[in-house]
Design goal:
single chain, alpha/beta, Translation Initiation Factor IF3, 4-stranded mixed β-sheet, 4 helices, rod-shaped
């Protein structure tokens, strides 16, 4: 038989009520006032009298700090804060464009236009030039192609990481312009 825990796994678990094994704790009551150093049993009695939970909030201090609070409400508020923080995060995607060293001008312009739309949407762009066979002996041609590509998209993005060889590919990253 499997036991399913009802606690949220995203929030670091705090010890509550009988899980606290320390003999003495520094107690903070439900209004935020310091009661002082009291025994664990006395702290539990105070929490039970106020119909709240005793929560260990600072386990590493000497003596550990415990607070009388409604643990369910605290967990709910923490989950709500985490969700709000996730909403405010901006996800930056990395879009990839592949070029060849002997790419024609029109094809390069088409790829540059595609990169401009990616950059305008706020995404980063990974531009790679793939070398095959004897092209590996002329990697400087790939560098020229990437420089020309940067000139085409210069008003929409800036070079984040300069061109660098990674195996058979020369890779460069562009990020959106923040000057707009």
């Amino acid at each position: 038989m499997r036991i399913i825990l009802w606690r949220c796994l995203e929030i670091k678990e705090l010890q509550i009520n009988e899980e606290i094994r320390d003999k003495e704790v520094r107690l903070i009551d439900s209004e935020g006032n310091q009661v002082g150093v009291v025994s664990r049993n006395r702290a539990l009695d105070i929490a039970i009298e106020s119909k709240l939970d005793l929560v260990k909030i600072a386990p590493n201090s000497k003596p550990p700090v415990c607070r009388v609070m409604d643990y369910g409400k605290y967990r709910y508020d923490m989950m709500k804060r985490e969700r709000e923080a996730k909403k405010k995060q901006k996800v930056i995607n990395v879009k990839e464009l592949r070029l060849t060293p002997n790419i024609e001008e029109h094809d390069l312009n088409t790829k540059a236009n595609r990169a401009k739309t990616f950059l305008d949407n706020g995404d980063r762009v990974k531009v790679s030039v793939r070398f095959r066979g004897r092209e590996m002996g002329h990697t400087e041609i790939g560098k020229v192609v990437l420089d020309e590509f940067v000139n085409l998209v210069s008003e929409h993005g800036v070079v984040d990481k300069k061109a660098k060889m990674e195996g058979r590919n020369m890779v460069m990253f562009l990020s959106p312009n923040t000057d707009k």
